[in-house]
Every structure is written in C-alpha cells, then in structure tokens.
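User: I'm putting together notes for a lab meeting next week and I want to include a structural view of one of the chains we've been expressing. I don't have a solved structure, so I'd like a prediction I can at least talk through. The sequence is below, exactly as it appears in our construct file.
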Amino acid sequence: MSDSSASIRFKNGIAMPNRFMLAPLTNTQSHDDGTLSDDEYRWLTMRAEGGFGLTMTCASHVQFVGKGFPGQLGIYADAHIEGHTRLASTIKANNSLALIQLHHAGMRSPEDEIGQQPVSASDIQKHNARGLTLSEVEQLRDDFIAAAVRAKACGYDGAEVHGAHGYILTQFISAEINQRQDRYGGSLRNRARLLLEIVDGIRSTCGNDFLLGVRLSPERFGMQLSEVKALCEILINEHDIDFLDLSLWDVFKQAHDETQQHKSLLAHFLDIDYKDVKLTVAGKINSGKDVHALLNQGVDFVTIGRAAILHHDFPKRVIANPDFEPIALPVTEAHLSNEGLSAKFIKYMRGWDGFVAEAN
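Assistant: Thanks for the context. Below is the predicted structure for the 360-residue chain, given as structure tokens.
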C-alpha cells in the first residue's frame, strides 16, 4: 500500500511533507473588497494545523470583474497583500506548503457582485456576457501574472492557475464557448493560448523556486476529453509546470463521452507520461480507502474537499488509520463550527444536498 505520509519532492526541489492537498474550496467568508477575513484565515490555517501537506486558498480573483461569488478572497490589488502575507506565514509555520489559486469567473461572475456586464471569450447571451477585446485579453493575461507576482511577495510557495469548472480560462479553451476569430480562437492551441501565456509569464517572472500548477476539468462546459488530454501533454512537454490538478467530479466514474467508456475517466489520464510533473486529482475522495486506492494507481497526491470540511485533520486521521471513514452526513452546525466553519460558510454548505442537518 502506498504511504500517504510519505513526502514528495517537486522537480524544483521543494518538498511536500505528505500526500494531502486541501482543495481550493469556495467558502464565501472574506470581505466584499476581497480582503482576508478572520473567518477565512481560521478555516485555512486549521487545515494546515490538521496535517495538509499543501494548503490551497479558495479561488482568488485576479481582476475585480472576475469575482465569482460573495465573500471571495481577492489577489487583484495591493490592498490584499497584508491578509495574504499573514495567511501564507501561518500556513507555512505549520509545515504545510502555502499555495494560492488564481481565478477569474468570466461569464460566471454574478452581475450583482461586479456591478457590470460579465466578460468571456465571446459574447454569451445566456449569461449576458460580452467577449473581451484583444487588448482586454492581453490585460487579463498580464493581471494573472501580476497576481502571481503579488502572491510570491506575500510569501506563498506557489500558485495554481484555475483552468477548470467553466471559469474564464475554460471559456477560452472550450470550442463550444470560444468563437473568437483572432489568435485566441480556432485551434486547440489558439484556444489554450491564454492559459499557456499565463503559465509561461508566471514562470518567467516568479522563477523556478515558485511552485506552479494548473487545474483542468475534462468534462462539462463544452470541454472534450481528447482535447483536455492533449492540453495536459502540451503543458507537460512544452511548458514548465510542477503539477497538474485534475478535477474529475468523481475520481471513480466512467467518462461522460460514450465513446470513451472502455476505461474509467481517471484511467484516461493515468495513461499520460507525466515525466517530472506531479499529478493530483479531486472528486469524491472521501475516506482513507479512497486515498490509498488512488495512490496505489499512481496518483502522486490527493486533493481533498468534502472530507476536509468535515475533518480539519483528515490527513492526520488517515495517516493514523488507513481505513478512516469520515463522520456520516448530515452533520450538525455545531460540528461544522468546531471544524472552523463560520456561519457564512455553514449557510453556503446548506446548498449541498444532505450535508447540513436541519436545526431542531
């Protein structure tokens, strides 16, 4: 059985003390201006204390117009530096790598949060989104890179570029959404150009000692499994990243594409030669048995969401007991409060069917 407590060394020499990464989880706990709240600080630092070898922030938007949800943590202005510096310092003091997820919601930005029409790769009537001009695309690229530079100055060990879940980089990569006629539209390489330029720009400005990952999801929002696999290979072979984070929704499921169901969705990605790039996956990894099943298949480390909400010390529990099972759902508000969730986060979790018990 693979040892979940074993450390990993990334190609740049940085070591991750075990095989557990905290998923970048929406939690709606910070301030409207994007500055860090004490509630979000407590939630994240408790996970570092709980044994996560890598603690990642929620999606942190790189432009104000890219805000995706109320109470989102921002990284688009120098006003955010103080909170991030405090957060990164405490995470690292608990022997956990501190990473920020860089994000822009694009067409998924709520108009009542940003006070203007959302933007996307192209005009999207369903979301009342307008396509970015070429100069705006270039500015978006530069703002992702500037956010990474800001994050490094705050003391983060690295950053993950959010190219998944239908947010703006997905909107560019998706042939269904992206109808551009310029160099950011058309072929897969053109549609992925924005992501690839961001990755290259972060590496060149932040250096080799800054961990750099990319999150992709292979389904929904017009994403094609074959294209996402090809994009993974482009990133591995032609661009200097340290890890790929694949959000599969369910790591044990079959591919949605009926022509690709001869093996599991995960197996499609395990076929790739990752060379010196590490692989992590996310999606319903809920128990110690799930963790070890994935590590035994060749995944380098696991990304934990729901189980990390239920138990801030999920890694310590699984390392101590490989058969650890989390508390059964639904759970009480008191349990979640004890695990570091504020009232805002608990309210958000009520949107997850069957997660929070009804109050008596």
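A couple of points you could mention at the meeting. The longest strand covers residues 54-61. The first helix runs from residue 38 to 49.

User: Perfect, that's what I needed.
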